[in-house]
Each structure stands twice: as C-alpha cells, then as structure tokens.
Amino acid sequence: MKLAILLLSLLVVSSGYFINESFAEVSENQAFLLEGSGFAVTEETIKISEIDLGLTSKNQLGSTINFMIEDGFVTLDSEEFIISNLDGKFLREGKYIRINGNIESSNGFDSSISFFGRLVDQSKDASVYGFTGRITTPDETYKIIYTVKLSTLSKITQTTTEEPETIKVHIQKGSSSQGGAGSYIESGSIKYFSKDRISVQPGTTITIINNDIVTHNLISGKENNDRYIPFTPDGKISTGEIAVGGSTNITFEDAGFYRLYDPDYPWMRIVAYVFPTVDNTILGKGQNLGN
Predict the structure, then answer these.
(1) What DSSP character marks residue 275?
(2) What is the CATH number of domain 16-152?
(3) Burial environment of residue 44 by CB neighbours within 10 A (0 to 12, 13 to 18, 19 or more)
C-alpha cells in the first residue's frame, strides 16, 4: 500500500498536474549534475532505478539549449548501465528536459533510454523535475518514474592580473567523521569542503587546504554506485597525503568531468567540470501548466 501511494505521488509530480511559476535558469556552456531515483515498471515487476549524470550545455537555438552527457550511470536494482551515446535538450526555456540515446550494461549488452522531464520547482541553486520515459533492454521495456534534481556547478573564474588569484578549497574540520562537519551545513546538507561542486577553465590551479584533524588524500575516479566499492580510480589526479594544516595544488590541464574523493573517507567528494569560459545567458520565467 505504501509503495502504491509513493508511486501515485511520483506520477502526479511527473505528470505536471499543478500550476507552478518557476524561474528556470539555464546557460550555454555550463556544467550540471542530474541526480535522482524512482521506479522502473513492467507488467511483471517494479525495480528501483537511479540516475546520476554529468552534463554540459552547448549551443542555444531559440528557447532550446542542447547538452551532452559527459559521465554517469543509470541503474535497475543492482544492475548498472554506463553512458554509451547520450544527448539531450533543455526545452521551452528550461521547463522541460529530453534525453535520448544508448547505454551499456556491465555485461556489454546495449540498451536505450528515452526520458522526458517537467520542471516542478526550483531553489536558488537547483531545480526539481519529474521524469517519465522508458529504458529498453534486450529482454524488457521498463516505464520509468523519477524525481530528479538538476544542480549547477559553481563557475569560478580567475581575475586577470600579473599574479592570478589563488582558488582555495578547504577541507572542513570534522570531515573525516561522516556527519561530523556539523558546523558547515548549507542548503540542508553537510559540506565536507568549502566548495564541493565547481567549474573552472582548463589550466586552472586550485589549492586544497586541510583544516581537518587527520591527513587526507584526494584522487579522481569513476563513481560506481556500489556501497562497498563506491569509486574506481581513473589515474588522472592524485594529491598524495595532505598533512593536517597543510595544502597541495591541483591543476586541471585537460577539459573534462572530474569526480574527486578521499578513498579513506569516500563520503568526502568534489565534482569539478573543466571547460572554456563562455558568457552565460539567463533564460526567462514561465508557468508550468502541465500541458
């Protein structure tokens, strides 16, 4: 009964049966995270499904902005699908999102997804969408119902001076104890770093400063959505040991999507997207009428 009520509430949200005035801020050449969960349904079964995608918006044509999926996964219960060839669009000034393309299962079988999202509401730093659509595997077609958060990565630019301003990211005191960095709560969630979602230009150097009471080591890798092995290192970045009170520099030489984490404290994560700076365009305000 509880499952049926939850499914019904998600369906109401994703179907857009409400009138909600929201401000959809979407920009060209900006990085986003699309994260959410829900259910994948057939006549025989209901599976829990999750989505976690890193994407970059591209060119704008009218009220449509294209985007590329750079990184991420989709799951069906314990089965994980990785990105193969996905792209999408922000439609009607960000009120809708469409994603289509191919994904690949861990055993190598090709599958496809077709998702459509409607804007539900928005805070100053993120938007919530209701998603419906399909996941088609070689064996089955699943109808999906998701609630998804779209969040932007804070764009950090360096001032043009003879000595460029240093970008500093602090490891917060108490971060080594999950939930222990209680003094650093922002938007209802604990922050283990002073900045944990950033976008910068290629060639940018950031300084990691360890304000915690233990040493830390940050490396980059692919997120696995696995409780016991949450990440697989990709060899792109490794800071080595950062002593208590010490610091180290990270230079993002190449464009791309980076997930940094501490392998000893895997809840401590930074997401960084590196791409050339392009002026933002802020889109307008409208009503989602559910049509």
Answers:
(1) -
(2) 2.40.160.30
(3) exposed
Residue 162 in tokens: 């003879």
CATH for the stretch 154-274: 2.60.40.420
Tens of pLDDT along 106-147?
777 889 999 999 999 988 778 999 999 999 999 999 999 999
pLDDT band at 5 (very low <50, low <70, confident <90, very high): very low
Structural tokens at position 1: 């009964």
Distance from C-alpha of 180 to C-alpha of 191, rounded to nearest angstrom: 10
The separation between CA 46 and the C-alpha centre of its own chain, rounded to angstroms, equals 25
Map out the domains of the chain as residue ranges: 16-152, 154-274
User: What is the identity of the amino acid at 180?
Assistant: G
Q: Residue 278 carries which side chain, given as an amino acid letter?
A: V
- DSSP label at residue 124: S
In the numeric block, which tokens belong to residue 219? 């490396």
The answer to whether the CB of 184 falls within 8 A of the CB of 177 is no
Q: Which residues pair with 46 in a beta bridge?
A: 41
If you average pLDDT over every residue of the chain, what do you get?
A: 79
**Could you tell me if 148 and 131 are in contact, meaning their C-beta atoms sit under 8 angstroms apart?**
yes
The reported pTM is 0.63
CA–CA dist 113, 255 (Å, integer): 27
Tokens representing 104 are 């690949």
Residues 6+ apart with CB under 8 A from 17: 290
DSSP-assigned states of every residue in 188-253 = TEE-SBS--EEEE-TTEEEEEEE-SSS-B--EEEEE---SS--EEEEEEEE---B-TT-EEEEEE-
